[in-house]
Amino acid sequence: MWVLLDATERRHVVVEIRVSESLRYLCMICLQSFTLDYWAGKEIKIKRGRVLTATVVYPSYPGGLNLQHSVEYWLTLDLLASNNPKVGTAVRVQNSSQADIVFVPFFSSLSYNRHSKLHGKEKVSVNKMLQTKLVRFLMARDEWKRFGGKDHLIVAHHPNSMLYARKKLGSAMFVLADFGRYPVEIANLGKDIIAPYKHVVRTIPIGESAQFDHRPILMHFQGAIYRKDGGAIRQELYYLLKDEKDVHFTFGTYRGNGIRKAAQGMASSKFCLNIAGDTPSSNRLFDAIASRCVPVIISDEIELPFEDVLDYSEFCVFVRASDAVRKGYLLDLLRAIDRYQWTKLWERLKEIAPHFEYSYPSQPSDAVAMVWEAVLRKTSSVQFKRHRKNRFARSEALLKRV
What we know:
By secondary structure, this protein is of the alpha/beta class. The chain contains twelve helices and 13 strands.
């Protein structure tokens, strides 16, 4: 199998998509014109060098804030194109016995964003209905029964997605934004993957990224200030920092010109605050990376994408919440970071930034490739358990033939 390639080479995950009419229906409800046989929408020409190798048609994803949880979209696009002549990290197969992972093409975040509210005389939301159908479909499949779903991959990146199904499907490998709204027995680092948000601000080209002396703002935060639970720290920091001349700490949304204003502010700042909100993670971290603004992470419970292969301390500043709310602590800390120290963080930030860019066709080491590689690392434990289970099963099967 592909996954057996030497670890020093380009490694592959063999992924299976098996679609019946019922599962295709689930996907179509979430994204109009979506089927695994044909996508009507944008057209992209795929080239290898100067040679045109394929023309692919696919639908666009609903814009605005929906984009930040669009992980399922990019992974599905990548799999649908996996038969095109390009080197990738995931390849579709037609036989489930060849698959390392069974990918479930259910657009759970889009289902929550578009279909969680009741309309008219509805007593059950479309979002809940879709999850019920998904559970019924998966549990009836031989592929699910074979290992109890442990080799299935389900994307549930929005913190509120898969709310009704997550417990029943908890044996599967989840792709999540964080573990903030999951009990540890359902989601944990042992079996699941943290994937980056899709940033919503424009990516600043490396050559256009301002250096230390051309960033007049020390630190930047623009977003919801009054949050509950762990996000209450935002309010405390607001009152500590709001009157500082070189600090931009204001309420803001991504509506209207909010995205453009936030992007301009981050690109003009030395540091961008990523503070815990209703959940430990937020898209603000990945907007900061796209803006080439050194992130300051104030979220004690945050889990970070690909942290087993990336050292975030090389391009981020971490501050404990208890220290951040001490008067003067955050200002003193960031003002003490000189041009040389900041530039070192900034240079490393520019190096790792491509790992957080979702793209189609996917590029080597972009966010899509990084997610598949994270899946590959997780599959080693799944395969280990599978092989142990087969120790006596195959031998006993031979005896039955005698």
